[in-house]
Design brief:
Layout: H1 4-17, E1 21-24, H2 31-46, E2 51-55, E3 73-74, E4 84-90, E5 105-115, E6 126-129, H3 136-144, H4 153-166, H5 177-187, H6 193-202, H7 206-216, E7 220-221, E8 227-232, H8 234-240, H9 252-255, E9 262-270, E10 273-280, H10 286-292, E11 296-297, E12 301-307, H11 310-324
Parallel strand pairs: 1-2, 1-4, 2-3, 4-5, 5-6, 8-9
Antiparallel strand pairs: 7-8, 9-10, 10-12, 11-12
């Protein structure tokens, strides 16, 4: 069985040996995904490597302050007219999460898979998976330490952003002594921790506030008070002029109600599909739950996409949660 340290060394060898990389993260990227993408891009630039960073869809506006984030191509607008032999996937819990960017992978592509989700099945030829890590950015912090590169404020800000957002501002159960030590180290490079926390975790746009109100107006509870859920439709999004990135964090509101063990957010994609976000207080492993519906994630935070009508999917998911409880 390969150790974490051996996997990091194998990743280092992969990065040094090859060139002309494609760097991708998951669809609808969050703070950790964007931070990890630019951190890999920064390392590759230091190594003198050629690379392309791309994602299916746009990068959230609130993440564009990160150095090199504006260099991440939107495949929906500027798809490369070629394929890549060497691919680096960051923060992708499974291969499906890369979305349409898989069209850019050569048939015999060599994939470096760097991730912290316990449901990751090791789809790469080189896999660095650490389910104990709070964020993929934490793994990259360890990987960067193997290279003779000089840290900058911009790089430190990217790594700090990844661990800040995926640990919920150092409040979630994945907040380990290790990442607190990392945060302390990163602050020495000039990272502005309070400003990042304010901009990434506290500040809201008006459409974001309006769509939250819409969601909370749908709040429902199970009879025993252990399950709570909300939902939104495309019409709600249109009425509030909200975009997908403004839905981040909504699932926490039903979960934060005292006594609730599982909070759920159902987002209707169209008449035939619903995205399901799940949060657990600890009694239920929602990653296991999400896997039964073709998704994945972490024990306390997971999700999936389901085919069917909203009412049918709500019934299926709530019944499954009842069984697990």
């Amino acid at each position: 069985m390969q150790t974490y340290e051996q996997a990091l060394e194998q990743a280092k060898e992969y990065l040094l040996k090859h060139d002309d990389y494609l760097v991708v993260s998951h669809v609808q990227p969050d703070g950790d995904a964007v931070s990890s993408t630019v951190a890999v891009g920064w390392l590759l630039s230091c190594l003198g490597k050629k690379f392309t960073m791309i994602n299916e869809g746009p990068i959230p506006q609130r993440m564009l302050f990160l150095t090199m984030a504006d260099q991440i191509e939107n495949m929906e607008i500027h798809p490369p007219l070629r394929t890549y032999q060497h691919v680096i996937c960051v923060d992708c819990a499974d291969f499906k999460r890369v979305g349409l960017t898989n069209q850019l992978f050569a048939e015999d592509a060599l994939i470096l898979n760097i991730d912290h989700h316990p449901t990751n099945n090791g789809y790469g030829q080189v896999n660095v998976i650490n389910a104990d890590a709070a964020a993929t950015a934490e793994i990259l912090y360890d990987l960067l330490g193997l290279f003779d590169v000089k840290w900058t404020k911009e790089l430190a800000t990217a790594i700090y952003t990844g661990i800040l957002t995926d640990s919920g501002g150092f409040r979630y159960s994945n907040t380990s002594p290790k990442i607190m030590g990392m945060a302390s180290d990163l602050l020495t490079y000039g990272v502005n921790g309070p400003e990042l926390a304010e901009n990434l975790l506290e500040e809201m746009t008006l459409p974001q506030m309006n769509i939250l109100v819409k969601a909370l107006n749908t709040l429902q509870m199970s009879s025993d008070g252990q399950i709570s859920w909300v939902h939104l439709t495309p019409a709600d999004m249109l009425e509030c002029s909200a975009v997908n990135e403004e839905l981040e964090g909504i699932v926490n509101y039903p979960r934060n109600i005292r006594g609730v063990e599982v909070g759920i957010f159902f987002k209707v994609i169209d008449d035939h599909a619903v995205k399901v976000s799940l949060r657990s207080a600890g009694k239920v492993d929602v990653a296991e739950l999400a896997q039964t519906f073709g998704g994945g994630g972490h024990a306390r935070a997971a999700g999936c996409r389901m085919e069917g009508t909203l009412d049918t999917i709500i019934s299926q998911v709530i019944e499954r949660v009842r069984t697990l409880l």
